[in-house]
Amino acid sequence: MITDTMSKIYAVNHPLVRPWHTRFAKRGLDILASALGLLLLWPLFILIAVRIKRDSPGPVFFRGPRVGQGGRVFQILKFRTMNECAESYAGPKITAEGDGRITPLGKWLRDTKLNELPQLWNVLVGEMSLVGPRPEDPDFAAKWPEDARREILAVRPGITSPASISYHDEEKQLSPDNLMGDYLEKIAPDKMRLDRLYVRHYNLMTDLDAIFWTLIVLVPRVSVQPKSEGQLFGGPFTRLVRPFMNWTVIDFVIALLGASAVGLAWRLFQPLHIGWDRAFFVAVGIALLFGLVNSLLGLKRVEWSRAVPEDALGIIASVILVVLFSMLFEMYIPSLDIPQGYLMAAGVVIGGGFMLARYRLRLVTGLASRWVRLRGTGFGVGERVLVVGAGAGGELVTWLLRRPDFSRLFSIHAYVDDDPSKQGMRYDGVPVLGTAADIPTLVEREDIGLVVYAINKVSKADRERILSVCRQANTRLVILSDVLHSIETHFIPRNGNGSHD
User: Taking the alpha carbons of 259, 260, 261, 262 in that order, is the dihedral positive or negative?
Assistant: First the structure.
């Protein structure tokens, strides 16, 4: 049992505590959603309670001890799904499909996950969160490794989590003949890994993703579900909303200021007979059009601090498309009386603003170095490389393999990274296609010839786990510290005297 002494280990000053604004947003979402849910769902609660009482004798709710944040034990609240008898309490604490202790109505409640709804009360009073590692029985939690226990119990447990979504059909995966063995050896370690990934990277967007997948996967019981771990941790909110938020505001301001500045300059040399009010709406319209086109072209998914010069082609395409659309719009509505020269000038100025905001001085040096490199190496396509880790180590590997000696032999195809905020983004012109768990699938699907492990700061356990997944892939593996030696030994052709050509 988790003791009060053990609870003191998990103090408020735990190193995994997230920034105050992240915790504030998470708790605010918990209070708002749980209060609203209890307010709106009380008729359903009453209906389920009546059906439970008619289905079998016993209480409506089940209360059981669970380990919460900081090691504190609380009573989790669920609709009762088992027969109220001694056998139900004396049997295993986990269930497999066909468990005789479960009532007919209880099976339906479990399948639809409606039995979990009373936990909205646990969320409202602060014992749980909407999203977080599922709370575990104290006897199971006591068997966790110390480092995992400290990490997982650093946050409030949740009604749903990436692990519970991934194992939404857990009961079907357990064999009644080896119930505890299957759970402890196969399922529990992977759920623990997913829970630790969540604790390290959670934010408001990842929580919204988890709620989205829960509604799609668990409640309606439909076949749509995350097809990879990258989609699980980087769902629609992380992949679409988060990267769009900053650039949507920045692009709108740049486009609005650019269109307005060109309009003012235009008036200095020749008349612009559209009026101040119409000029303002034209500028806003151009800004909104740029925002839409930039989104469609994927410009808001690029990590521009690590963009490559080729990404500038997207900005050029955006300017051309917006100018063409604006000209067509003006042709069909001649009453606007907007000079086409103004539209072209506004497009060029706004495009220049986008370039400066994203590249700044890197644009000139990047284009120059790329031109020199292309002139010297040609346009050959080398063996596809998957880089594990999109951080500083991945940036180093990408830079190295794009050097003239190696660029003819290798093509950096994709990154994988366990950070949910990186899913769907592009770094150094390379997309992040998933997490480390997706490596075997990506190697086969994307025809990867080489996997380069490029993570520097990682625990020994996580390093071994990721390298183990890498070794499962049917391809060659190079570790960052050995990359130079391996490439020179195995891939660079040598001349007759043993030196490089």
Answer: positive
Cα distances (Å, whole numbers) of residue 282 to 122, 278, 288, 357: 51, 6, 10, 23
The residue among 213, 166, 167, 211 whose CA lies nearest residue 30 is 211
Query: Quick one: angle between helices 20-55 and 204-213, nearest 10?
Result: 20
Written as tens digits, the pLDDT of the chain (501 aa) is 444 434 443 433 444 567 888 889 899 999 999 999 999 999 999 999 999 999 999 999 999 999 999 999 999 999 999 988 877 777 777 777 777 888 999 989 988 889 999 999 999 999 999 999 999 999 888 888 898 899 999 999 999 999 988 888 777 777 777 777 778 777 888 889 899 989 988 888 889 888 988 888 765 555 556 667 777 777 777 766 666 666 777 777 888 888 888 878 877 777 666 666 666 777 777 778 877 888 788 777 777 667 776 777 888 888 889 888 888 877 777 666 677 787 888 888 888 888 777 776 455 445 544 544 454 444 445 788 999 998 888 888 888 888 877 777 888 899 999 888 788 888 888 899 999 999 999 998 888 989 999 887 778 888 888 999 999 888 888 887 555 445 555 555 555 444 444
Q: Is the whole model's pTM more than 0.70, yes or no?
A: no
Q: 263 Cβ partners below 8 Å, 6+ apart?
A: 272, 279, 282, 283, 342, 346
**Alpha-carbon distance 252 to 244, whole Å?**
12
Architecture of the domain spanning 380-490? 3-Layer(aba) Sandwich (3.40)
Cα–Cα distance measured from residue 179 to residue 191, given in angstroms and rounded to the nearest whole number: 16
3-class secondary structure per residue, 127-184: CCEEECCCCECHHHHCCCCHHHHHHHCCCCCEEECHHHHHCCCHHHHCCHHHHHHHHH
Strands (E), 314-441: 383-388, 410-416, 426-427, 430-431
Residue in the structure block whose two tokens are 């939404």: 168
Domain range list for the chain: 4-225, 239-364, 380-490
Cα 274 to the chain's mean position, in Å?
46
> How many residues belong to the chain?
501
